[in-house]
## 1
Amino acid sequence: MAGTVRITDVSPRDGLQNEEGAIATSEKVRLVKLLCAADVDEVEVSSFVSSRWVPQLGDAAEVFAALADDASLRERRPVFSALVPNEKGMNAALEVNQRAARRLLDKVSVFTAASETFSRRNTNASIDETVERFRPVVAAGRRHGLAVRAYISCAIACPFEGPVQPAAVARVVEKLATLRDQGDIAEIDLGDTIGAGTPESIRAMLDAVLTTAAAHLPSAAITLHLHDTFGRAASCVVEALTMGIRSFDGAAGGLGGCPYASTSTAKAPGNIATELLVSTIRDAGFTTTVSGERLAEAGSFARSLKTS
Ligand code: HMG
Ligand code: MG
């Protein structure tokens, strides 16, 4: 075997943020528990963003409260993470552990983009402004012992600006490195937000990022977050594996996409299904901790939640 690959399932966050209809909190909790049973390494549980911007995830605190009540999750569970855009979101995230009176949320994910237009549409801020907003988040992460992941969306292309140059992604990595005096960025997550990637463009982007990260954020792990719009995500995974990437995001059932990556005529495409991600990784000779059978159950439940 060529090694173990880390799997983060983002369906409760990236998947459900894109569904138009209401999904009950209890259904979200069930999805998270099914993913725990499938033994993924990490579940991105929800978002502490403005519920005016993403009403679908306005019940993040309630989802975590229900998870806190589940005794079985005290013994063994995946890493739990949540999206946080700014200090206000971080304060809400910190309350999860205060209310649970123990560590339940392990990691927060800040998010910016390699495209200015996308950054403004998604967060009402320029790329530089988003990074400034992360300062107090990263500092609080250090104080409270929470890991910080930093997403860079539009690492291959932007729905508004078109192709994004690898150098533009590398520049964002450099900007993120300016946060080092506040605390650690444990992970950089590269999002092919609209699924435009090919093995060639993924290679070029990773080349630029790996070189820059080695120089500026040497201890950060690199994760790839693919969307499967054109059916090329699996071939991009294989390419990334050959380049040494050992951490990927998927969404059970292929749910998801970013609401601000949608246009007026087309809904943003889904994430690579975690089922496809895991089978691709295994076929390439690597291992994961994931149970295929349990993951299939989570995937079929995730698909049953689709409202649009
Ligand atoms: P804003 O309107 O510029 O914020 O939004 P503001 O600071 O001017 O505040 C406006 C109001 O929002 C205020 O409330 C704040 O208190 C409140 P009011 O006084 O008017 O009642 N507010 C908040 N409420 C709850 N939680 C917060 C928060 N912050 C302010 N954290 C903001 C700026 C960033 C908040 C907004 O743009 C936002 O929430 N954006 C989130 C968008 C989002 O979640 N997009 C999807 C995730 S990104 C993605 O999917 C891509 C990814 O998967 C990677 C990939 O696929 O490539 C990660
Ligand atoms: Mg996404």
## 2
Amino acid sequence: MEQYVIKGGKPLVGEVEIGGAKNAALAILAASLMTEETVEIDNLPNVTDINALLEAIERIGGHIERTGAHSIKLNCAHIDSFNIDCECIRKIRASYYLLGALLGRFKKATVPLPGGCNIGNRPIDLHLKGFRSLGVNIDISHGMINADSTELIGSHIYLDNVSVGATINIMMAASMAKGNTVIENAAKEPHVVDTANFLNSMGADIKGAGTDVIRIKGVERLHKTDYSIIPDQIEAGTFMFAAAATKGDVTIKNVIPKHLESISAKLIEIGCEVSEFDDSVRVVAKNRLSHTHVKTLPYPGFPTDMQPQMVVTIGISEGTSIVTESIFENRFKYVDELTKMGANIKVEGNTAIIDGVSGYTGARVAAPDLRAGAALVIAGLAAEGITVVDDITYVERGYEEIENKLRNLGAMIEKVNSEKEIQKFRLRVS
Ligand code: UD1
């Protein structure tokens, strides 16, 4: 088991380059199997969730050629199975995208019920409601979702909840349905738009992605494309909060500042200077930051995937802050870990009441999920003394070489895999 070991207390200073959006890449890779022609994808993050999905696609007959550190060629002309049941796919939430993609092209699929981070009840009823509405028969047995139909027929679908996954999944299947589909109350996240742009570049006819009504005219076939994935809004936001929490000065490059507006607004509100450029943002924090109230909401609201990083930052800001988690009810599990570092946070249901303390102290903590793991790394960077973060496989699901990127900003952080190495780090930095 590997850990991050961090000696905190040093402001992060410098420039960091953001990779491609993991959540867009997961959908786009799945959508790639909807054509038998070769798809070239660039700006693909090299993280474990992506590699798990690539492995699953290879197992059903996809051919993948890595053409660079962040680019691949994918050919799915010879898909020979519609039943995906490997260990790799059980680990990731986005396995559900294979359902929409396979249904679109082959009208049938068998996929395990999704895994992923345990951040609360994560039903997929809306995905299934959408597929059923397109004429798909669905049966769940022995942990598998079995879906098939003779033909997908366009339909009018209203999503009761705003769901990123359901919006993208239905959009993929409907792209190759007969006739027109309308998705109402659709999610507007940047990765919904990116997936729609990708599908359109393959010949799909999708309009309205990025608004709450998406209109899709089904097409018979999709073709090859060459596509570059958008920058990762959440990776960028994580570095923005890391800069704020350590009182640093960091320029975050290769971003779309518009996607970061809700994050920038909160950072400005608590006292940071945020400057926006064409494809970068600079975050400077000089003085002690102050409190705020935040409620997580679907895009363009404040993202639930940034909630733990935000809490860690306001946990050492002046005054009392209130954070309401409205998307996933179980997303405050890291608070117990943060308490070990001196935080003063009380969780009541989906609300955290945060009394800012003057600073954190290093401790041994464990990442309970991907984003909370990154938040604990930020806490370690801001803390006095040494922090060890266990269970970093969660963090590696969504952050590529986070320790190297942080080291380039002056952080004292290492990835280690034994108590002996932790000890060596302690000796070296003391
Ligand atoms: C995606 C992201 C995840 C992010 C989340 C919210 C991926 C791979 N993951 O997850 O990082 O935290 O969006 O921005 O892109 N819901 C239902 N029924 C459904 C589907 C969802 O009730 O069928 C509910 C969920 O319980 C949750 C809300 O809708 O309360 C939003 O979930 P959703 O947007 O679907 O999240 P994911 O797509 O799983």
## 3
Amino acid sequence: MLNKILSQADTIAIGGHVRPDGDCVGSCMAMYCYIKENYKDKKVTVYLEEIPRPFEFLEGTESICHEIPEDKTYDLFICQDCGDKQRLGFAAPLFETAAHTFCIDHHISNESFAEENYVVPDASSTSELVYELFDKEKVSLSTAEALYLGIVHDTGVFQFSCAAPSTFRMAAELLEKGVDAPKLIRDTYYVKSYAQNQILARALMESILFLDGKGIVSSIRKSTMEFYGVTPKELDGIVNHLRNTRGVKVAVFMYELETNVYKVSMRSDDDVDVSKIARYYGGGGHKKAAGLTMAGTHYDIINNLSEQIELQLGGSL
Ligand code: AMP
Ligand code: MN
Ligand code: MN
């Protein structure tokens, strides 16, 4: 499939979602390295917003473009880990003007908006789908590292239910390519700055249970982020800590993007499909991990979300 799609293009742009996470950066850089190494006559460029600093060790990240050149068009735009066009952010015009488009994604909310689509909602990560498209013999250590980063981050280090036997098999094959898994996991997933740990502690300390302990919520104001000198992309992972509270079925973490506008992250277990709630408010994601942007005070937001969560919990409350 990939060979056929690439055969119609000399110039290729790769893009992913706004505020790129491990799977987005990993899958995009893997595709970039794979094309660069195995299709030497093609010109490939990655367009992503600023990536988290711990991911900068990946091959090729120094050449990521953060803005689009004027009048530039591509033969092919490959859109990865992105459920809709708007989520491409600044790179969306390149998608619109490309001669051909291809989307590789695992968001349940993805409505196959590209010309060619490889969308598998049950897949652990976009990185796993990207790996399936590759000729395994041609995967280098650089490509393997990027893919490993992607699966580690979207499976919470192989802990979430989306980690399937195929994910572990893929991880084993990537280890055989020489990936230093303990170092990669520690450096990119667990190690946090002192300020990040402080803000995590604050989020946990100020969290509130609702719906009789079945929900937990915490929010961080912009002024608090400024006080600790922490940027939005450094708040990743806090929602997972909230979710690990006994009895909790839905965890909600939000941080203020601008006055009374919040980025909301939700995590759940089997009883609640948070992607439905996210979509209801214009966001998206997966059954057990979804996000949205919402206007209002954090009280308004939690009142709205709580109502939707309660509807799904129904009789089990
Ligand atoms: P997050 O809570 O930001 O870690 O996101 C959880 C999942 O939901 C990820 O797969 C995101 O790509 C997706 N997601 C987050 N925010 C949005 C949004 N505003 N619209 C669509 N999907 C989102
Ligand atoms: Mn993602
Ligand atoms: Mn993903």
## 4
Amino acid sequence: MRVLIALFVLFASLPLNAEEKLKVVTSFSILADITRQIAGDKLELRNLVGADADAHLYQPSADDAKAVLNADLIIANGLGFEPWLQRLIASSEAPGTRLDASAGVLPLMLDEDGDKVPDPHAWQNLANAEIYVQNIAKALSQADSANAAYYSARRDAYLGEIRALLGEARQGLGQLPPAQRSIITSHDAFAYLGQAYGLNFIAPQGLSTEDEPSAAEVAALIRQIRADGVRAVFVENIRDPRLIEQIANEAGAKVGGTLYSDALASTGPASSYLGMFRHNLDTLLAALKP
Ligand code: ZN
């Protein structure tokens, strides 16, 4: 009897029993992949904004609300990227721990209609991705201490891959001549990449994808492309390509391919975070190299 009581006390004090996995919700596809790279199959993971989808314009479903309510851990990007998640957590009074994966990133501040706001797209700099990985691994280990050693081993292996790609990006993009460093994309999603490697990203849409640009703004951008001789114009996977195609056409520039901004691809090499970054890097280099 005493053994049974001792066993009962032991099991009751464990945060999770052997069959019950930690329930984690991630806000969008990039965080879902980074979390899976660290956690493998140790979690029950539910992601909200899927591949090729636009998190800026997302409308959560009733199922999303239920998942958030039942989650042990909710992993968001933060920096104002998911206002809808904030509302969902507040209205459901979800008891799970919320983590902002970007905590500790030095945010770029941008001007949005006269207000200074943080740019949320911090994952486009691999050095920031290292911070995301550290934050997520730490939160997983705290919520599920039985698997802490497993999470740290996978974190370290993943950080090694991130640093190797960072070295390649630095080397490849570092060789571009100053005249080949302007790039047109649909919305302002690449400022962190631009800052890290001295590239100048210009977009007809602002930080969010919500506001459509005016005819005057589009005309100004076309003039700028012509005047600067910009060769690199790209569509984004989360956006209707027609505006960018029209701009490229009128400016006499060519569309250099698709860049993945705020979501992974549903299949293929860009369906993981590092695969996506490599795709963007290769696509930029192919268009910009003299
Ligand atoms: Zn965006």
